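Thioredoxin domain-containing protein
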Amino acid sequence: MRDRYPWGEEALARARAEKKPILLSVGYSACHWCHVMAHESFESPDIARLMNEGFINIKVDREERPDLDQIYQGVVQLMGQGGGWPLTVFLTPDLRPFYGGTYFPPEDRYGRPGFPRLLSALSDAWHNKPGEIEDQAQRFQEGLGELSTHGLDAAPGHLSAEDIVAMGHAMAKRMDPVHGGFGGAPKFPNPMNVALLLRAWRRGGGDSLKIAVFRTLERMALGGLYDQLGGGFHRYSVDERWRVPHFEKMLYDNAQLLHLYAEAEQVESRPLWRKVVEETVEYVRREMTDPAGGFYATQDADSEGEEGKFFVWRPEEIRAALSPGQAETVLRHFGITPQGNFEHGATVLEVVVPVATLATEQGRPVEAVQEELDAARRSLFDAREQRVKPGRDDKILAGWNGLMIRGLALASRVFDRPDWAKLAARAADFVLANMWDGTRLLRSHQDGQGRIDGFLEDYGDLASGLTALYQATFDAKYLDAADALAHRAVALFWDEEKQAYLSAPRGQKDLVVAAFSLFDNAFPSGASTLTEAQVALAALTGDVAHLDHPEHYVAKLHDQLVRNPLGYGHLGLAADSLLDGASGVTFAGTREAVSPLLAAANRTYAPVFSFGWHDTSATPPARLQELFEGRDPVEGKGAAYLCRGFVCERPITDAATLAERLVAAPGH
């Protein structure tokens, strides 16, 4: 297709000069239906001719311009459709939309108009019915403005622990009681919402909430959503049983799920949680890590032009790769049959028959069957590595790297894996060296070049990740960088009138309406992660000013949080931490002396607490007096100072006592 532009002044100026409408296509590299529409329509000479004659064609990568995607997704919402990608929107030269949709086929089918017919009709309307186009554009602009600020006119409210519990129970009612997860097919992991159920359980919401969480985590880990050979989670399940996924793998999904499974391990240690975390970290290290340290954005669903081809198996392929005994065990374990559970007789691997059942059937010890399966999985993985791999989008996005840094940092603490913290630190060092100059954060880095000014989600996600990384390494440079990012984010994105955050910097001129960062969708909004980071920074730095904006923002969103918790899951996590008033623990002593206390804290589910460390052997006595309000650390021992609302308890020197205090309700 000729004449296709990136979003920028050249394309927008041409639209204004030629008085042509803009055809805006928004997608991303791992999007299956984006590839389909590109092949069917954009690569068709006849359709390309219609596009070039009637429109200025602009292609946007939604991973690089989330603000544009956020705004123009509102078009299909206003039209009563579900959003998604590819997003296809038609704009006036002054960027007001007048029609939109998602995927359009090359001819009428699926109840959708064929793309050529749509192009001809809209071109005709542009030339012959300008009044109708103008009216529609005006209505859309007004509607988008209302969508962008939805809920921001509400009076501030006061969030309570009871609200968190009520939110958890409201969300639990939407969960599948058999297979876990929210709703039916298609089913998404929604890790932040699952994590909020754990927060509600912690606040006294009852064990039914924990049971619902564990059911979800178990079913996801045993189903086809999880890559049973290579680790890592696919995007979503097309069915309610987590059996058949949409095969793309996103960095942000795996980042959030790493964090969630690590939290589950703190609540109740299980071999399955450890297995999932270890294998997912290995997947990220193997497939998604740039040699310079940053993490890549996505892995495609397709290989050799077929969705899922890399991941699925047929019985004859299993038998060719394994010994006869191994093959029969694997076929039974993963439910691989000639009929398959996917297309054309192929099977997505899922755990159908548990190891214990296989052991009973075969009259063998469970350990022997597990060893055989482990060896078989390694052999199948090696065989799969010979296949053509799915494509990979090797963009390094600042925000998504922040999310993975956050997940790896917690996992490194929970599972005592300092090598995972080093993996996170390499990514952090890359982003800080190549994408942040102390005042300006870049969104994207690829082919040795940084580009596009960062959005709120980049500042918020990275600040959150760096506060988590500080707690895994106690390297002050990460805390300092998080502090600087948070302050800069407020300066760039805070809207004083609305008491809320904009997605893009104030005054950005290529947006038809101001875009506010409100909802948590597949990944958290920048407002949510920034709020999370600010609460942690208040605890870790002692700077109470870091709580100013979280308090105002959570108060402003109170009604929305309580009424629609599924839309604000990560903000719920940040708000839950804010309730405890910047809770923190400062460890004092040599690293060896505080080690037992630190290990106890890392094993304990205490998500509202942030953890810092002062090496007393390297800290002047006067500074220790200042830090600990005149209380000297216990001579020769490590001590933990547990603080809520900037008020600290007496130093704790016993690990078991510290764990008890971390799980105790505030004020007890």
